[in-house]
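G., the chain you wanted modeled:
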Amino acid sequence: MSRMSRTRRMKKDRPRSYTRLTHPLVRETPGDRTSPFRQATWDEALALAADGFRHTRETHGPDAFAMLSCARATNEMNFVAQKFTRVVMGTNNVDSCNRTCHAPSVAGLSAVFGSGGGTSSYEEVEHTDLIVMWGSNARYAHPIFFQHVLRGIRNGARMYAVDPRRTSTAEWAESWLGPNVGTDIPLAHAVAREIIAAGLHNKAFVERATTGFEEFRALVEPWTLSLAEKVTGVPAAAIRDLAHTYARAERAQVCWTLGITEHHNGTDNVRALINLSLLTGHVGRYGAGVQPLRGQNNVQGGGDMGAIPNRLPGFQDLLDDGHRTKFEQAWDAVIPARYGMTLTDMFEAMEHGRLRTVYCIGENPAQSEADSEQAVRRLAALDHLVVQDIFLTRTAELADVVLPATAAWAETDGTTTNSERRVQRVRAALTPPGEAREDIDILCDLAGRLGHDWKYADAEAVWNELRALSPDHFGMTYERLAAHQGLQWPCPDVDELPSSYLHGRLWDTDPVRRGRRAPFGLVEHDPPVDLTDEAYPLRLTTGRRLDSYNTGVQSGGFASPLRRGEYVELCPEDAERYGVAVGEEVRVSSRRGAVTAPVWVDPGLRPGLAFMTMHFPDEVDTNVLTIEANCPIAGTAEFKASAIRIEKLNV
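Predicted structure as tokens:
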């Protein structure tokens, strides 16, 4: 490696370190975002924030306002944030980064089972017979969960990995299936067809607990092993092996992450995997289920608390008159009987001037959204942007008012909910720096300035309000959460412990107790939107690395022996074809923009496939390359399938 390459690499190893916010900030010239920030008093900053919200509501109507809530903050904060949106501002325009990652999981699970949580507990993975990791490099992206996977393997479970890359997770698998990006549905359909053709589907369960089987059988019939091999690139023998192993297992778990959801048809991908569990009866039993692995500490809880545009707290549909009336009576307010905007809708509404004001708590969409240059332009065009965070993020740099908050994981009391639906207590261990205030206190202060006198003695008071309104959480007192080291929802009773798995009712022989049958999803193969061609011959997929977190705001300031900065990763064959070496900087271009990044060679990639992360956007803004092609059901963008080209730089 040349001296210049080594110098560049060292620079990449030192991502921008963000300074903790300790005092409110406002613009020197209000309304002029080109003017610098200055330190302000809390009273001045809150007055400016509230005045902007009031002006938007009175001038453009409540739906010109939107709230971006935080998947890293507590359940209690998310509950108050969605309440602020609905009661104070009068709109259902509230969403979070759940839309960026696992909204298709919620949509798919809800459509089949009526609730948006994974069906199993982490412990069950330790006692299952087969683990299928589909589109998930859990060893890097979900290292805590992966420890349960390793215990399961040590206890005798077999593991199959399905991923376009031969990842670190796949190193532990008995078999690795590497489909072409965007061909998960054909692969799942071929597995299903083989199970049916071999007579291995659970006929009794299918007949008793599902609907649409005959239509599903007809749908998957064309997907023979040979056709699937041509489309997916996975050998027919490997597909057959997975089908027979999965169907014959006594208990099997299918786990997925963003390799399934971050596609323009992410919800359809989720439905295709759930179909396999319905076909074999691998759901509703201990050790058998489907598990979306959430990437942030409270992305499950944010949705559970109603910080999404179509559900009230407790995952209650706001179009249901009974649910809505219950909340209206408790809050002495009228909740609009219409769904609000998703995060995706919000950015489109910014483009057309329908959304004028955003209150952003703990999110960084300027760097986390697909096609990030477009996202920044839209945020900068807002009339009023208020950001509440612990660091001056790229999004905060665009704001009119910046409010310093406490770090939810170390300076705040409350609860969070993980991927297995387990609600756990968190407690303040540190005193927040400077004048930083708790999110709930800030929200309540703003609510008071806008005519709503909210007083909560502490986080437990917020939680008890939630418990009174959400049957799934009623049995979870703070005392019980502490005594049992967390409880899983649904937990409607203060005396009984909840089951670790969901949907056991599907096995009940009594039709009344069994309830609504689970429908097969009739989903079709739909290739990636951003097609590769001679101009853009490589398929770029994105993901996470173990050493870093999201857009790097929290992790970038801490050294890691594993961190090497951002690279464009290529297989050895493509590196040789382009004549590039490790550490050499190249131009990476898509149809939306271009970045400069050094090369890394990964033998786990195949020819035609490149990999990057979004952990270092201040050095290499990968989301300049990604495409805003969104799932029509869930609104999640296709981060996993962009077409790019690689060009050597002139030395």
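Confidence is low (pLDDT under 50) at residues 1-13.

Shout if anything looks off.
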